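Example record

One chain of 448 residues, shown exactly as stored in the release files.
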Amino acid sequence: MKRQFLIMLVMLTFLVSCGPAGPVATVAPAVPTAPVATPTTTPNVLSVDPEIALGPISPYLYGTNYGPMHAVTLEMMPLVEQAGFSVLRFPGGAWTDGVDIKNFQIDQFMAFCEQVGAIPTISVRLLDGKPETAAELVRYTNITKKYGVVYWSIGNEPSIYTQLKQANYDYTTENLNRDWRPIAEAMKAVDPTIKLIGPEIHQWNDSYETTPKDSAGRDWMTEFLKVNGDLLDVVSVHRYPMYSPNNPVTAQSLRENTRRWVREIEYLRSLTTEILGRELPIAYTEVNSDPTSSILQEASPDSFYNAIWYADVLGQMMNTDVFMVNQWVLSQRSTGLGLFNGNNIRPTFHVFPLYKNFGSEQVHAASGVADVDIFAAKRDDGALTLMIINLSDIEQRLPLQVAGMELAEAEVWLLDIDHNAENLGMQAFAMDGIVTLPAQSATLYIIK
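Predicted structure tokens for this chain:
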């Protein structure tokens, strides 16, 4: 219900504009108690209807990757603890397919999750991995130590094992299907309550023609779901949409990308439903703009505009009921991808404390303005929250209409070139209902 409703809204907008928290298995969309008319998108207006409930927002949209290669400095830990990270994927990246995780590393990771206030997900070895090794890791984690880790995955991007020369032979969909299942069955035999995430393939896209294939032309996701989908609890992919080694990423290319995520997510959902006859929660367990080592450019992952892009992408994920998102990566010294580089803070980090103040129950919001998106929710304390993203290079002065409310004032948080997700305090709305959005900004309004 929520997805169908939101797809119509997104399409209309596109046409107009041209201790850790306890884990849960799924976040079910809320269904309105009575039929409601589909609101129309009004050109040149930002509109919100708090009475049109769209269901709960998954708390696991605000995740990142963390592992032995991604340590955080002591000086940065207070920021990590306060950021609002909700889920940490460990050990992150290709590391998991080069070694077997040791018990002491599990203990360290669980202590880190508790310190941060995030739930854990753990990835065991697939390439040259052994079922008994994975099973013993589950046993230690959940039976011996009683950590209660629910979400587990097997391997990292098997779709490029050959390309990255991790495997010294042609690793195909047949290899993946043969290797993955016995590991999964061994893990489930130790703890039947765990939920498996997979297959963690690289560079998801929006059609059969554009998704990854093996050397024989077989579609990685399709073949995996046919053979192993019965054991899967959450379907997962990775996405870095700006991969273009010979052409620097621009702010304009990021700006044009955000709404494409809707098509990619809906294609994944339709494919799993078609093959399995049931829906699966969707996880994007690695997300960033450009996977290369690009740095100090207009729109490289360490840039300010990457933060505005990511704020909007999270809103698109919310609109399409994505269950889990893990940004890549918490800390990294060699590229621009880390939220931290030693004691340096990258702008995209500030997206997380901004969304930490966002609501948990989504309500209808729509933009009739090119390059401006709005997302709205209600918080547990009854506040209405509005996240407005101005992707454009110019200041926007736009009418904001909230059904059933006369806007007087709001607590305002601002992320722009001059403000790092700063609380600007209570601000009065203009009498004419116009809101002023700085160029390249994300503004959070909390209306109580």
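Notes: The longest helix spans residues 173-190.
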